[in-house]
Amino acid sequence: MFLGLFVVWPLIYTITLSFADTNAKLKIVDWVGFENYKTLFTEDKEFLDLDAFPPTGAFINNLKWVVLYTSLSLGLGLLIAVLAARVRYESMIKAVVFIPMAISATAVAIIWKFVYDPDPDIGSLNALITAFGGEPKAWYGRADLVNYALIWAYVWASTGFAMVVLSAALKGISEEVIEAARTDGASDWDIFRRIQLPLLSLPISVVAVWLLINVIKVFDIIYVLTGGGPGGASEVIAFSMYDETFTNGEAGYGAAIAVVMLLLIIPIMAFNIRRFRSERVVS
Amino acid sequence: MATAEVTVQRPARSASERMVGFLTKTPVHITLLVIAFIWLVPTFGLAITSVRVPADITGSSWWSSLLDWRYTLNNYDAVLSRANMDRSFVNSLIITIPSTLIPLTIAALAAYAFSWINFPFRDTIFLLIVALMVVPIQMALVPLLRLFRDMGIANNYGGIWLAHSGFGLPLGIFLLRNFFITLPRDLIEAARVDGASNLKIFLRVVLPLSVPALASYAIFQFLWVWNDLLMALVFVQNSDLWPMTIRINQIQSQFGIEWHLLSAGAFLLMAVPLIVFFALQRYFVQGLLAGSVK
To answer: What is the ipTM of this complex?
Structure first.
């Protein structure tokens, strides 16, 4: 049907394409076997450079994204969900943190490009630093800072999601259990550590899966905020795919990168299906 | 998702108890205040910048302007007329509305079939669709682009409508099917016994009962398409048809970093999602949660 034509057929086509060489019109001109993959992991320094120390390239950048983006979004989301539950203005705090979820990565990129602006009279972050006597920094103009600047901007946009899911799950924990623990002399930290955290393990894994899928596909925010720069320092897998395919016209090579993305996502997909199946057994 | 809040009646506390409660909570309040600050200031700063005179933006900081009110809407006028943002706003709507309605219709029909009609391999096919939900769009960009060129719809809205519909469908089928199967079986059976056709059951029984689920999915898909940049970059090649997300980038490369244009443009881009968010917050959050949780 519809899905077959617009999702399944392209999937197979792209896998085929990844074993081919193409011309500028994206037509296949030659079959090259695993050549694209070999180049990608051994010769393409922009994608993966293991000779440098520490290793660099789009693949390594994406690993940084996976670790930092996932843990920070999850950690902050949990922190805000737990803390907000203890104050009267809970709904207000949650709305404030959640709003960035509604807007596009393009808008988030513009918002943070403004915060990171190197001129301390324009960029809020550099203004804050100079107010405390520090030196303004080119947050997205320096190869050693740009990835962290980008990751933080995206964490800012995604924390609301983790927070809302975890907050809803927290509300599902019976008040009586917590009251009982408190009567037995448990501290807030005990309650969090021994009761809330174990009961939240399923929603936490759900959020983690969502964040992981999201971070492997991250593209828009980088395209708008840095365009992959400076000098390719902030490229990630999805960015390389776009760049090779549509800027350089290397559709076969780009397809190989897309397949790498799919291979990274398949384990997550398998996890999702297993969970879905086990849920059905229960219900 | 059960989001019902459980309120437990506690005995009234004395003033001193409340004081102690407040003091032990001080670190909590401070942390939340810092968090609110980090989440509000970036957006607020850009909002103020979007109404400042261009010469002021480069001359002094946005926070200093809070003491010296000289605001104007000229930036919005400039970005709409000079940077073609008005045209792009309309384009965004033309792209987004069919890209929401097409998958909504197909997903609702398919979800009905997966819930209430028996056919061979039904559950296997459904599982396959669940698996397709996470396929990265990158896997389809080049094949679809070639297909759309062959079909002659790479230079109009046809390509992007179809691409968004195809990639929005798995989630839609998944969400709606999970809602449809919770409808009471007796109701559907009773309609069948009365001789109603599947189409009639779908239109008269299932759809009216499923408005919240349909709304959640529609809002989710609408915002997804409205906020999308990557698919628009690939499938909308004609610059007259560009949506706002591409146009803002074009402003960056064409005029350099002109904050008066960029800030106003970003707020025009955000306006629609924010209106949707505040007007339909409940459905919106449900849609987002449903997209991941169940």
So the answer is: 0.84
